[in-house]
Amino acid sequence: MRVLLVEDEERLASTLAMGLRAEGFVVSAATNGVDGLHEALHSHYDVIVLDIMLPGLSGYEVLRRLRGAKVWAPVIMLTAKDGEYDQTDAFDLGADDYLTKPFTFSILVARLRALIRRGAPERPVVLRAGTLALDPAQRTVARGEAAIALTAREFGVLEYLMRNKGAAVAKLDILTNVWDDHYDGPLNIVEVYIGYLRRKIDIPFGTNTIETLRGVGYRLVP
Q: Which domains does the chain show, CATH number per domain?
């Protein structure tokens, strides 16, 4: 099992590489984002361990370019920072897992093995449905070349539908995944936002992206 370790803290990188080799992994290491990106683009790895705070290119930028180049190797990101937005940014860009330093080596090994067992399905950075494109990291939506401005809630509803495109999605599913846990308003708020979305992503373009499934909910046409 080939692992690419991209970490600029020399002592940590050395310790991790030594430990992973003892666990049976074949380890290649890079100490900055530029070298890490080059390695990941030009060699095959079963999994990549990628620090966020790197010289040259940040881990975020390395990951963004990898996914843009259709390199789907599972990536676990490491950082000394501990924040909800760091995790969100990493997952939006296509990360598979996330560990905050300091972490237990045995946990890292277990996570790596789990990612390798899972394999590397394609996870494009930009979600697409026909001419409609949504970029979770950049928070942008476009129909062809035309940019579409959405509110945060509209964006959340559309992103959830696009991540489940082709599948029937109940109103309650949308409410649970887009609104916060404390929302206690009417369920038909989902209908209201579906209407907002249609007026922005479909009606001006003569398209019908969001289907209403009576008695069920909605489906975004692939």
A: 2-118 (3.40.50.2300), 127-220 (1.10.10.10)
